[in-house]
Amino acid sequence: MMKLEPYLSLMSINIALKLTLLLLLCLNFVAVRLVLSADEYNRLDFPTDFIFGSGTSAYQWEGAVSEDGRTPSIWDTYAHAGFAHGDTGDIACDGYHKYKEDVKLMMETGLDAYTLSISWSRLIPNGRGPINPKGLQFYNNLINELISNRIQPHVTLHNFDLPQALEDEYGGWVSPKIIRDFTNYADVCFREFGDRVLYWNTVNEPNVFTIGGYDQGTTPPTRCSPPFCQKYNSSRGDSTTEPYLAVHHILLSHSSAVRLYRRKYKDKQHGFIGIAVYSSGLIPANDADEDQAATQRARDFFIGWILGPLVHGDYPISMKTNAGARIPTFSDRESAQLKGSCDFIGMIFYNNLNVTDNSVALKRNLRDYGTDMAAQLIFTQALFSNEEYPVTPWTLCEELNIMKTLYGNPPIFIYENGQRTQRNSSLQDVTRVEYLHGYIGAVLDSIRDDPKLKRYPKLSAEWYGNFLKGGKTSVVGAIELEKDPSSVSVGHLFQ
Length: 495
Description:
Elements: E1 5-10, H1 15-25, H2 27-30, E2 50-55, H3 58-61, H4 74-80, H5 95-109, E3 113-117, H6 120-123, H7 133-148, E4 152-158, H8 164-170, H9 177-193, E5 199-204, H10 206-216, H11 242-264, H12 266-269, E6 272-284, H13 289-312, H14 317-323, H15 332-338, E7 344-357, H16 369-373, E8 375-379, H17 393-406, E9 412-416, H18 430-448, H19 459-468, H20 476-483
Parallel strand pairs: 2-3, 3-4, 4-5, 5-6, 6-7, 7-9
Antiparallel strand pairs: 1-2, 1-9, 7-8
Helix pairs in contact: 1-17, 5-7, 9-11, 10-11, 17-18
């Protein structure tokens, strides 16, 4: 059974305008923190250009990890070291062999779009150099199958699965060498698939990827240093600097790939490039000023860390202040290349976090990313568990509205939003239905509550229009009208 994570998205030529509408509509939710949703609705209740889709990632879907020239990624190494409770992606959903069946299921479900990720080590086994013809054929076949079934592909270039060869050679994302290799990899993808792919996501969840992989050591490539390793002891890494360094190189890799695309492919392919950020509903634990400030600081560290440079050309001030020399700086050229390098933002949203102040942590001499944040994030459910999320659609709308305000109302695709369930749970996943019903219904409520904003010309507009069209005008009637609106007709203004 294929695992599909549903997402909601708006897509049209005028995407920014459409998204503005969605974000403005979310204001209707913020005041009342309830699970709001239309009781009954169907697809036809939504605008015709509102896109519903689903998605998977390569390592969790493809399987066939040792077939047809694919080499290991850092996900393979992580899983085979036993860090994933004995689970691996060796078979996964066997999408490599059964993609036609899966696309048929997508078509029968009625999906408009599908997000897939490309396994870098399947397409370019050594991370650089020759293309694997079998890998190239597979992705061409998958993309063609989607398009032939009228499903629009959205493609992610990196989803936690850097080729292990590059990790072994120079440390992967902690080295500036990755910028050139990622750009060359992106170039191959743009050249080979860009005639059919319009939407590209360079890196999925760079914030969560680097926090887990380079600070806490809980995700690939499990780099961390004591006392910050949360789950596994690591003999390599530096939690005080490497999360910042890895994100820095991810951002520069992203902007380099975007620059290449706009210079070499944009005029011919007319595509769009973005980056997907993991976000959560960030809620102050109470109304204390300290917790309110901590929540803003957490948003800077969690979201602004990625979007700040892409929108404003630099990291948030709170990050630079608290991390000091441990966070890299951008040159003027790098800052200019970063600013405006996203055509859209991908949003990953599942759950909420309560935030309390932890400013006392800044007094410590040895600090990592989490300590620099000076805020405690309280998970209502463990991040890496099967415990179900509460259904709180208003928090998604609130975060969208905040993102709109802080980052210039960017086009947004909600690439992931859904309920997690127990492993090998029943096919009757009622709680997932309840979750989707709540979030999709909440968006529909927003659309239905939107005022139509009908235009009514004022008297001054009528006077001005009459004047511009050559008519004679008078102010006498306007004065009399102001004194007694019922005594004079508008016609007295125009002679």
